[in-house]
Structures are given as C-alpha cells and as structure tokens.
Amino acid sequence: MITQHFTQLDTREVHYRRAGRGPVVVALHPSPMSSSALLPLMVSLSDTHCVLAPDTPGYGLSPADPANPSSASEFALSLKAWVDAAGLTRFALYGSATGAQIALEFAKRYPERIERLVLDNAAHFDDAARTMLLERYFPDLSPRASGAHLADLWHFNRELSTFFPWFAQSAEARLPRELPPLGAIHATAIDTMRAGAGYDRAYRAAVLNEHGSRYRDLCVPTTLIRWQSSLLIDQIDALIAYGLPACVRVADAAPDERFATIRQALQGDWTEALPTAASDHRFQHVRDGRLHVRMTTHGSQRPHIRLHAPGESMAADVFQADDRPCLRVDLPLHGESAGDFVATREGLVGPVAEVARELGFIDATVGGACSSLVDALVAELPGASATPCAGFEAICEIDLSPSWDGTHLLRAWRVARERGLFAPVFGAQRRPIVDATALDLRTIEQRCLAAVQAGAHYAAIMRAV
Predict the structure, then answer these.
(1) Domains of the chain, with CATH numbers?
(2) For residues 334 and 458, is the Cβ–Cβ distance under 8 A?
C-alpha cells in the first residue's frame, strides 16, 4: 500500500509518499510533475525496499521553499532539510530527469549519506542546445482573466509526448510514439496547475545542470540508466560520450526492462530506522479511501468543523481558523481526497463523519458554504450543531470530464470566475455582483483546479447537494 504523509520543517512542510519495507530508497520525480509520477516505480520496488518519494518544493503538495532555490544545488539543500527532519542518515537515492539532477548534486555534497545513486533520464546538453531550451521550452503559464493560459498549459502537456523539444513542431522532432492515454495527460496537467506560474523553477534548474562536467566530483557508486524509450535517449548517449567518472556504471534497459534494471541497481542490504510521527496535516484513511485533512488543536473554545463549498476544496476556501480547535477536510471526490466514493449526499458526508469521530470532533459546531451538507453532517454527529450558512447555488449539468482538446480546463475556469460576477451564476436571470475576493486570480486558479479535480463527478456532486 502507498500512503501519503507530511513532514513539518521550520519554514515549510514537505509532502511525501511511502511504500514497502526494507532498505530505504528516496525517489525524486521529474518536473513539472509530483511524486505521483513515481507510483509505478514505487509499486515495483515495494516488496524489497521502503520507498520514500517527496514532492519537490513548489510541486505536488509541497509548498515552495521560502529560500527560493534556483539551481539544482540549492534544491539539494532543500532535500537535505527534509531527510534530516525525517531522521534519514544513509539511504539509496533515485532521481528521474529533474529529480536526477537534484540527486546528483545531493550525492556530490553529501556522499556519506548515499548508499548508492541511480540516475534515470539524465542528459547532457551543449551550450547552444541549453540556451535554446531556456529561451523556448517554458511557456508563460501565469493566470490570465481570460483563462487563455490553460489552453497553453494543455497544449504544452500534450506536445511533451509528441515532439522533442515540444515546441519544435517538425518532422525531425516528431517522437515515434503514441499519444499517452487521456488520463495520463490530464494527471500531468493537474500537477502543472498545482505548481502554478512557478512550474518552471526546478525545471529550469535541471536544464542548467544537465552537462557532463557536473559529474566531475561524483564519488558514490552510481548507476546511469540508459532507457532506450526515453525522450532523452540522444542526450543520454551524449552524456555517456562526454565521459563519466569510474564510479558510474551504465545500465542499458530495453523499453520493457526499465523497472527491472532500476531494481537490480538498487540491490543491497543496508538498514535505516524510520520514525513515524502523526501530523496535523495528514491523509486519514476511511472505509472507502482516504481524506485530505487539516486540523488545529489549540484554543479553548468549542471545536469547529468547516466544510468547503461543493466542487471546490480546502485550498480554494478563504476560511481562516480562529482560536479554537478546527477540523477541515477535502470532501470525498474533491481536492486531494481519493477513493471509491459516490456522489450522493451520504457519500459526501459519511466519510467526513467517520474522520470527525476518529479525531474527536463530535461535540462541535459545523459550518460551511452549503447548508444541506452542514445539516447532513450534524445529523451524523451526536452533540454537534450547525452555524448559519450562506446560501449555495449548485451549478448543475456542466461536464468537466477530461476532454482530448483540454476544453474542460477552460469550462472549469469560467465556472470559477463567474462566481464573482453573477448570482445565480448560470441562471436565466443573472444579477450582476462584484465579489473582489472571488475575482482574485489566485482564488480563481484554486477554484478552477478544484473543479478540474472533481472532473467527471462535478455535475453529480452538484445534483447531490
């Protein structure tokens, strides 16, 4: 089973995934993706290793590092802070693409911490190629009121698997491969949306670092995976041709042998103690899946449970906890919660009640954006009572299922933005309003992401409430 956790550092927190038991492997993901991109590898290794896959700062569910790292070496310092906080002293380190560059720099700086290093999709670019990539590879995805940036975002994520470099659009740059499944493109697009306008920070740092000269001071046992199906196979071969230190072994992997090759490179029997500590920011397991939970326990007032609006998420909710214990949850089928949930009122509220009972939020006030969900949760919790709720207008029959052309992203943006302009949002008679908070581009961005995450369930959720 793969579980999700958060580690609290002094100025930030780090989200990571964990799977398996045995010698510890820290696995670093490509950009602009998150540790979710490593799920197949984690499953492959979980019967022999304990795999910990952190989200790089600014990606996935790890907030950006306030130190604003801009080089692979600086991202390695961010990684050092996390492995120290996690109590890891010696482990194997794996990285793919951006993750490979961060892993390389970490291993050079802290060789005493590394049992072995495995680099996947590690490349070499000459100066001309690097300059060209830095100038053209990273489109501006800053949010725009029109939502036009989402068309660019979808195009970028589709073309990554069609051309290399993606912007070349030529017969010579065409990759000999099928388009990935729609679900895979959609998942990468969501990760890019999570990262926001700064999606390119670690990405650029990796490109700057992808040169054979960066291996000069490497001294730990290293395996470089030469995966024949890599988008970067020509650049991997250029790295090998550049010349590598004696500590680096090249392992050739056919298209269907990649995971087996990585597994062989990680064979060994080192040990590592893994502390387990519960965090107030967590994933709480329930009968049908897991809910994304934030909890505060300080304060002497009566505890409070806050429910975000249907079709949105905690991240899109402007609510601020005051001086009282507070429980907040991404509702089932919303935000970062995941599982085999159903889009009914009972299906949305029952798992939240399960978490509230387990965490001791029973004699609590319940508030939120939707009175029908608040009342349904109060009915599930003895001693709970509702606080007044503003009316919620359900936006029904809008299909946000992933579409091949990415238009579901634009529909989600329009739904999120119209909330600040009209009431009812899509009624026959739409009264003009001005909600300055709801028109903030960052707020729209968060609401749009939440609507996209609800996706195919969006219309059913609205009908249920």
Answers:
(1) 2-138+200-265 (3.40.50.1820), 281-386 (3.40.50.1820)
(2) no
